[in-house]
Amino acid sequence: MASEIRSELPSKHPIQTEGVKSAMEAIYNWNYDSEIDQLRTLYANALERQWVAMRDLDWEHEIDREAFSRTFSMGGIPISETDFWKALPQETRWEISRRSAAFLLSNFLHGEQGALMVAAQLVAAVPHMDGKFYASTQTLDEARHVEAFAAYVRKLDEVQPIAPGLKKLLDGVLETDSWMKKAVGMQVVTEGLALFSFRDMRNTTEERLLEKLLTYVSRDEARHTGYGIKYLTAVVPTLDEQEKAGIEDFAFESARLLVDSRAGMSFRQTALKLWEAAGVDPAEALGALSREREKIRESLARTGGRFGPIRGFVIPTLRTIGLFSERIQGHFEDMFRANFGEAMADLERDPKHVPEDLEAWVNEGYETL
Ligand SMILES: [Fe+2]
Ligand SMILES: [Fe+2]
């Protein structure tokens, strides 16, 4: 009977049947009193701050193409400030912006699906009742994020396939049977990167629906990252050196998959294909952009854009939690050296902590929205 029902379901995307084995231990806790107050408070905050994606955002809003293509950047490089960009016809600027944003936001969307499944796993896997309560609210938050990003991407283009590095990262977090590895891989690395990127995009975009959507989502992500920080900060001091090293390695591997997927050939090739589809010769574009190197460098220096999400947020979070030993710092430095050269391997001037009040950090300038 079950198979009959299943065969009648629409299967527009055959890939929907893809899966990973994710068995883990489900932990009961017979103590219903609060043990980690900060997590209980976070849970109470989450209940107060629920929103409804289809009601609270104006989905009738037509994307303002001019505003949308006014602030185009790629891998943190502010392309829209170059003369090359300004000289392109408005229609071409829109096509490149639209296709690139659909690619990036599709990957955010797939990441949200991963977060949805991991949050649900955490309800069973974490040992404290406060942690289970909180993870249940995050599960609902992530469902809303999937819903909202899917709706926004549909306004721009079709949903694009997941980047291979992100897929590997999500598989790894779903597969591990350690709740602390799930928490570090999802709450700290993936959601830290997402929070930093969402807030950054929210602060630069001039497209009002995207700005509002990212503000709402970032407020939720601030709690999700806060959960990882508060929970892990409470338990890391109880671990022995070997256990701690295992969690650090998992965090590093998760970050490595993201950095490589962004800096490796496949991301670059995809990005360049998008330019080609919009009618711009990639070789010509790269040549023109490299002639404006100085201008780009000045603009980056002005906005403090030297730190991407890993260095600006994920590493400082690991430091705060106590998961950034000299040993793991060496791994990160090697990776930056291999990917971006010797000059980028020095972490000395990077931020050492993340803001204590992440919600306030997200709300800066957006208190009334
Ligand atoms: Fe999310
Ligand atoms: Fe999240």
| Average pLDDT figure | 89
Q: Which parts are unreliable, with pLDDT below 50 for 5 consecutive residues or more?
A: none
Total number of distinct structural domains: 1
Q: How many extended strands? A: 0
Pattern of helices and strands: HHHHHHHHHHHHHHHHH
Describe the structure.
- The chain has 369 residues and is mainly α.
- The chain has a single domain, classed as Ferritin (Up-down Bundle), CATH 1.20.1260.
- The chain is built from 17 helices and no strands.
- Helix 6 (90-125) runs antiparallel to helix 7 (129-156).
- It is globular.
- It starts with a helix and ends in a 6-residue tail after the last helix.
- It binds fe (ii) ion (2 copies).
Give the arrangement of secondary structure elements.
Layout: H1 2-8, H2 37-48, H3 53-56, H4 65-68, H5 83-87, H6 90-125, H7 129-156, H8 164-175, H9 179-204, H10 208-235, H11 241-263, H12 265-277, H13 282-291, H14 293-303, H15 309-321, H16 326-340, H17 358-363
The chain binds fe (ii) ion (2 copies).
One fe (ii) ion binds next to α10.
Looking at this protein, list some descriptive labels:
binds fe (ii) ion, mainly alpha, 0% strand, 369 residues, single chain, 17 helices, Ferritin
